[in-house]
Structure formats: C-alpha cells, structure tokens
C-alpha cells in the first residue's frame, strides 16, 4: 500500500496577493528539505450558504476585502504550530488545521488561510514521495489517472458580467478523442464566436466577464445559445459539441419567485423553460437550475429530465462541496452531479471526502474554478487525481489564470501518453 514519506515543515510564510478580479487573496510558501512549495487560493462571487467562511478584513482598505487578518492567522497561529513538525499524511496536517480553527465553518482562521496551507502541503507530500502532484492524488485515492473532460466558458451573464443575461455561464464540451483535440476545438470555437459577435454587435460585444467569457449585450438565453451553435458549426464541429449552463438561479430568486428575463416565474414555469431548452439545443448539463433552497425544483428536474433526458443536474450553491449537504441531496434525490470547489470547504481532505460521497451513487463530478482566480493550476492536477471520470470547468480558453489550468492538462496528457505500455 502507498504511504507518503514523512517530511518536516521548516518554514511557512503567507502574504496578500491579488486575484484575477484585482481582489486580495492569500498566497503561502511552505518550505521543507525537498524545496519550497507555493499555493494561492481563489474566491467566488456567487456563493452558497453552506460554504466555509472566507475571512475578509472589513474597513476601507480594498473596500473591506483585504485578507491581512487571514495572512496574520497563518504567520502568527498556523506557522508556529506546524513549523518543526514531522508530517506523515495529508489527513494529519488537515486535521491539525481543522482543530486549530475550532469552528464548523472555518470562521476563526478563515477557509482562505487554511486551504492555502493545505494545498501547499499536498505539493510538499508529492515532492517528498517522488510523484507529480496528480500521481500523488491517484496514489492516495487508489485510482488510475485519467484526464477530465473540459467545459470551456464562452458567454457570461448574471453576476459575472455587465449585460442583461440572467444565466451566469454558457459552456461547451467538445466530445473528441483526446484532450489536446478538445482544447483545440474549444479555442477555435471561442475565436469564431468572437468574430461572430463583433460582426453582429460591434466591438463592445467582445468585452469579457470575470472568467474570460464574452459578455455581449444580450438579454435572452436563446439568443446566446444560437450564437454558440453558430460558432460551433462555423468551426467545423457540428454534432460534436455539448453545452452546459450554470444558471446560478439563487441570484434571481426572491420570495418564492424567479425574476428571470423580465418575468416573474414560479417553479413550474421555469422548469418548462429548461425542458424547452433541452429539447432544442444540445444541452447535457444544467448547474443550479433552481435556488439552493428550492428542493422541490431540484427534485422535479432531476426526476423528469435527469433520468429521461440523461441530463446532468449539477448542485453547486445547493451543495457547496459540503459532505452533509451532499448526503442530504442523495437522500432526497435532489441532483445527480456535483460541483467541487476546494475553497468551499477549506481543506484537501474534506474535499476528497465530498468527492467520495458524491461518487457513491454514480454522480457526475465537475471540478470548478472561481470567478476570482490565480495562476495556481492545482485543480488541474486534482481533477486528474480523482480518476478522470468527471469534468473540469476552468473558464474560457483565454486569460492566463484560466489557461494555466488547461495548459497544465496538456503536460499531464503528454506524461500519461509516454507512460510505460503506451505507444
């Protein structure tokens, strides 16, 4: 059985850096005899109520979004506790961090502080054991490595963009024979969409949202989908690409009513809208189709479309990578897929627990970035380590903080193809 070689933590130092939105976030250096290991954590705009607490400073600086307190918690509380310790497993260091925080939602030290140390320690574990990071995760999870299927973001709306689209993300999954071909297709379709938008709506239409997707002056879901289908066909990938939508419906749900595209819709009307979309477009997945509190909506769409249409009904705000929320969703049949975001829960160990629970019923697993990202490519390795049975949502095939994840998968694909027994 695989065992991680123990290592001693010599030094931990944290600092405040900026993420892709220009918002402060946490970066950590963790030094061992094997070298220095760095990590940085993302932050989100659309958040679930069960997410672990992202510690922010408040006050005037950075509009209250500074993270100097989280940095201080690492340098003054976490570092003195961990420096000099011999660490033998990921679970060991994560349990120390959880106990040191002492709350159920990481509100004392901050999930952003804890996760940065947890990720850095996983890189140290991998190096100490002589593994690439993705192979380290494969070993501790007893799974063969496999590349995730990429979902590339093309158009943004909702809280991610300055247009009138209520749907937050329009993504595509090119269904091709290799990851490299899928990345090529994603980039080509993205470029073709840019040409189409500029021709039809002018230069302002090619401005982008938080995650690199275009933010054209549209208000209707079907208008965005028609443009995407046109870009797919113009790129030569007709019938080879599926579409995923992140509705983020909690953002437009008020007092039992969905305020969507200028209308006030009840659950049944919104369901009928989704049913029509699935019938008319190659949609394979819908994320957060109903509010995180609307269990009836989730149950209805999972039962009626998740089964009959083989549609992936994904819980993000509903589940928040939270083990107990995933168990509840299992028992109530609320969805059939899960978004995994390590910063929603705070440690790698807890993230792995959430994935394992989700996979018990054969759920689809979607590893996902956040709107505020860094160039840290951790989730690419992590998604491969989970066995490659799921998808990776890392944003548009553009902008450095998004492309860092996609380019990392190219290198991993090369490694896997050159492994013994591969031609």
Cross-sheet strand order for the largest sheet: 6-7-8-12-13-14-15-16
CATH architecture classification name of the largest domain: Alpha-Beta Barrel
Beta-strand share of residues: 15-25%
Instruction: Count the DSSP helices.
Output: 12
* Proportion of residues in helical segments: 25-40%
Poorly predicted ranges: none
Note the overall shape.
globular
Q: Give the radius of gyration.
A: 21 Å
* Mean of pLDDT: 94
CATH topology term of the largest domain = TIM Barrel
* Biggest sheet overview: 8 strands, mixed, barrel
Return the domain count. 2
Please provide the count of β strands.
Answer: 16
**Which CATH class of the largest domain is shown?**
Alpha Beta
Give the CATH H-level superfamily of the largest domain. Answer: Enolase-like C-terminal domain
Structural class: alpha/beta
The H-and-E topology, N to C, reads as: EEEEHEHHHEEHHEEEEHEHEHEHEHEH
- Rounded to the nearest angstrom, the distance between the terminal CA atoms is 28 Å
Question: Mind explaining what this structure looks like?
Answer:
It is a single chain. This protein is α/β, with parallel strands linked by helices and 423 residues long. It has two domains: 7-130, Enolase-like, domain 1; 141-417, TIM Barrel. The chain is built from twelve helices and 16 strands. The protein has helices spanning 68-82, 90-101, 111-128, 133-141, 179-201, 221-234, 267-280, 295-306, 323-332, 348-359, 378-385, 400-417, and strands at residues 7-8, 11-18, 24-32, 35-40, 86-87, 149-156, 169-174, 241-246, 253-254, 257-260, 263-265, 283-287, 312-315, 337-340, 364-368, 391-395. A hairpin with a 2-residue loop joins strand 3 (24-32) and strand 4.
């Amino acid at each position: 059985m695989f065992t991680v070689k123990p290592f001693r933590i010599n030094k931990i130092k944290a600092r405040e850096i900026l993420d892709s939105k220009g918002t402060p976030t946490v970066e950590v250096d963790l030094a061992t005899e094997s070298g220095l290991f760095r990590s940085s954590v993302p932050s989100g705009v659309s958040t679930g109520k069960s997410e672990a607490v992202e510690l922010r400073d408040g006050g005037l600086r950075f509009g209250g979004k500074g993270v100097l307190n989280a940095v201080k918690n690492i340098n003054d509380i976490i570092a003195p506790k961990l420096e000099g310790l011999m660490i033998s497993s990921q679970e060991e260091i994560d349990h120390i961090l959880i106990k040191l925080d002492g709350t159920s939602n990481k509100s004392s030290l901050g999930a952003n502080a804890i996760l940065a140390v947890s990720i850095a320690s996983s890189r140290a574990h991998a190096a100490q054991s002589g593994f690439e990071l993705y192979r380290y995760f494969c070993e501790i999870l007893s799974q063969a490595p496999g590349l995730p299927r990429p979902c590339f973001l093309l158009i943004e709306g909702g809280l991610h963009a300055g247009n009138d689209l209520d749907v937050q993300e329009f993504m595509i999954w090119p269904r091709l024979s290799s990851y490299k071909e899928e990345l090529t297709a994603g980039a080509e379709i993205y470029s073709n969409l840019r040409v189409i938008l500029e021709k039809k709506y002018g230069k302002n239409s090619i401005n982008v949202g938080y995650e690199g997707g275009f933010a054209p002056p549209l208000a209707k879901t079907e208008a965005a989908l028609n443009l995407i289908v046109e870009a797919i066909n113009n790129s030569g990938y007709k019938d080879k690409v599926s579409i995923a939508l992140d509705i983020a419906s909690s953002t437009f749900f008020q007092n039992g009513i969905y305020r969507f595209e200028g209308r006030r819709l009840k659950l049944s009307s919104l369901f009928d809208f989704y049913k029509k979309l699935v019938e008319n477009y190659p949609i394979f997945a819908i994320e957060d189709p109903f509010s995180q509190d609307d269990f009836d909506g989730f149950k209805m769409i999972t039962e009626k479309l998740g089964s009959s249409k083989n549609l992936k009904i994904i819980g993000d705000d509903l589940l928040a990578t939270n083990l107990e929320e995933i168990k509840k969703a299992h028992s109530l049949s609320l969805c059939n897929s899960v978004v995994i975001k390590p910063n929603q829960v705070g440690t790698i160990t807890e993230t792995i627990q959430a994935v394992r629970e989700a996979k018990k019923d054969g759920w689809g697993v979607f590893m996902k970035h956040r709107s505020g990202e860094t160039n840290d490519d951790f989730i690419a390795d992590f998604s491969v380590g989970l066995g490659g049975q799921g998808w990776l949502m890392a944003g548009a095939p553009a902008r450095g903080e998004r492309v860092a994840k996609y380019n990392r998968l190219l290198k991993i694909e090369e490694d896997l193809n050159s492994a013994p027994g591969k031609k």
